[in-house]
Amino acid sequence: MKRNRPKYMQIIDAAVVVIAEKGYHQAQVSKIAKQAGVADGTIYLYFRNKEDILISLFQEKMGNFIELIEGKIAGKTTAVEKLLMLVESHLEWVAGDSHLAIVTQLELRQSNKDLRLKINDVLKGYLKLIDKIVVEGIERDEFRKNLDVRLARQMIFGTIDETVTTWVMSDAKYDLLSLAGPLHQMLVNGCGYQTAGN
Amino acid sequence: MKRNRPKYMQIIDAAVVVIAEKGYHQAQVSKIAKQAGVADGTIYLYFRNKEDILISLFQEKMGNFIELIEGKIAGKTTAVEKLLMLVESHLEWVAGDSHLAIVTQLELRQSNKDLRLKINDVLKGYLKLIDKIVVEGIERDEFRKNLDVRLARQMIFGTIDETVTTWVMSDAKYDLLSLAGPLHQMLVNGCGYQTAGN
Amino acid sequence: MKRNRPKYMQIIDAAVVVIAEKGYHQAQVSKIAKQAGVADGTIYLYFRNKEDILISLFQEKMGNFIELIEGKIAGKTTAVEKLLMLVESHLEWVAGDSHLAIVTQLELRQSNKDLRLKINDVLKGYLKLIDKIVVEGIERDEFRKNLDVRLARQMIFGTIDETVTTWVMSDAKYDLLSLAGPLHQMLVNGCGYQTAGN
Amino acid sequence: MKRNRPKYMQIIDAAVVVIAEKGYHQAQVSKIAKQAGVADGTIYLYFRNKEDILISLFQEKMGNFIELIEGKIAGKTTAVEKLLMLVESHLEWVAGDSHLAIVTQLELRQSNKDLRLKINDVLKGYLKLIDKIVVEGIERDEFRKNLDVRLARQMIFGTIDETVTTWVMSDAKYDLLSLAGPLHQMLVNGCGYQTAGN
DNA sequence: TATGAATGAGTGTTCATTCAT
DNA sequence: AATGAATGAACACTCATTCAT
Fold first, then answer.
1. CA B35 → CA B3, B26, B28, B60, distances in Å?
2. Span A1-47: which CATH code?
3. Which among A172, A25, A106 is positioned nearest to B116, based on CA atoms?
4. Residues close to nucleic acid strand F (C-beta < 7 A)
5. Where do the structural domains in chain C lie, given as residue ranges?
6. What average pLDDT is seen over chain A?
7. D51-190: same fold as D1-47?
8. How far is B24 from chain A (nearest CA, A)?
9. Which of B116, B175, D24, D54 has the fewest CB within 10 Å, making it most exposed?
10. Which of residues 123-152 of D touch C (CB under 8 A)?
């Protein structure tokens, strides 16, 4: 169960590939093992069970992403700028790894309730990040004073998520990154920020 | 396969109850048959297969809902008013049938990709309705001229969906209907509409 | 799970054959199903799980045997005669169904502790029968007054069981039934009964 | 594979502990290795395979026991006295090492047929010892002239074995040693010996 | 129409054994 | 001699669907 050995990430990356290409329900442990170039049994030296592979996958990938964004945001002053950075980073992250995008946006959502609850725990870190930006925006008078933080967070996350899911389901037929600007404008307007062109 | 016989809706309603109470992965055909008071084999006189039950369920329930909203919206003049009506109706619909809410917001999303694609077909009718309101809002100068219709639609649907999902996952612990006003304000602001209090 | 349908006994008899011929650890459910002439899944319409097949097997076969002996014994007057009847019946039963003998004497004993505990429950009926004969023998002054009933029962059962197991492990090379007389004499002597030839 | 190195007995003793505490089916090689304080692979420097550990265990422990009894019996004159010594020694041996008792009476019997045949080879030394006492008893006119030696041996071994097994399965709740006298009386009576109190 | 007994394909996980170091 | 990471074969059980009645 040593999570710092090379085979740990090797198996997780193999799981991403197999799930993305074959789909969640066709991602048998034996297929993941084959893709990772290890024996079936070796999987269980690094993960408790199949579910543990999927949770670990989400934690590693989403966890890294959240840390990445936190770093990028730290350099920005206003909530509006921070939100732009978050939107851009999110779209870049998704567009940069199509396999991972398919896995997190489509395939992993068909998992059972237990797994989804654990995935939600990981997501909470991301939602808290959004909350912090919204609260800051209100305090700095960038956003409406009477803005409901939870609703604003649900708008920001729901909109980005829906945008990304639509894009993934379209087989990435159009340019996702160019949507960052317009998307950002909608979200800050929704938060009560008055953009110039309005 | 006659869809107008009483047992057709009887089976669909049984499916809603079973899925809501037991969860998607515990909703075996035999359980649905038992709940509907028919034999397992009878199911296959009305539906091609299990997937067909779920698609039909979504079509019947969501189809009714779309028709309902279309009627309500027809009586409104402005896009802003129409959007408020849509948000209110959506929240009322969800809050009014907790079984159906659990099924559509949580359980049916665990279905495989094929089923989800077919569910999306049904949703398209709803998304078109939103598109129509957005286009009208732009033409009537209520919304920004340069508003991206697809993005606006994704914001509106994504935000409502995320709000409802969060509420369902919280076991409906708070009042959903009272969120309609604030939710609506965020969405129209996002579309470039200047509300009074801003 | 209806235990009075023909397939119930059909599956149990198939299990006896497969276990006797292939051994306990090679008696996969699929082999039993094939031998019974039914599909794998059909097994589970009649038994909860594999363990349930084995317990039921023991209950049906041993249960019948105990009833059989009880009937035969009822016709006898003295404890000595009853014990002879029990020994003869036991040896006849075993010698009459070599498959069943292998299963109960050798194969089923390799089962796990849970299963063995349940098998012991069934055996208790047999042990109680022995106890009754011993108690009667003491009361009727056929056996020693100070005979320890539990020890006598362990001698009677242990001796018969060891005799039968040795015979089964020898591949039934010699005549088992002819041992009934000498075996019986030893046991009643052990209980304090004075046989003529002594 | 040198059986006189310290680790040989170290591993056997570890096997006794692990099997007694966890049960036969939970006694994985890795657990035995851990208990013995050696690496998994080291086991295979001293034993051909897992079965070889168990056979060796039985040989070492039972072999010692047989030698012990042979010595004790040598000092006795009559077959009746020798049998008493055997019964007492057997019960003392079992009662003195509860781990070993569990292993030999309960756990090792769940092994497969091959292993049981090899265990029987070890037991033959014990059975021959019993045979010798019985033959001597007949020759010395202590036992019946027409006593069947094999049956007598099966009675003696089967009775002791059943008594011990029942005691072990009862979690050693009562005093086993005090049964030696009554047990012995039953056995010699069974062999045709007339005890005083009869 | 309606029934429900029967079907049979499909998979996560364990653990004795090996072998490069 | 000793290690322990890696191997890979093996199997009980579920449930959507069928079809004889």
1. 19, 13, 11, 19
2. 1.10.10.60
3. A106
4. A 5, 7, 38-42, 44-45; B 25-26, 28-30, 40-41, 43-44, 49-51; C 26-30, 40-41, 44, 49-51; D 2, 5, 7, 38-42, 44-45
5. 1-47, 51-190
6. 94
7. no
8. 8
9. B175
10. 144, 146-148, 151-152
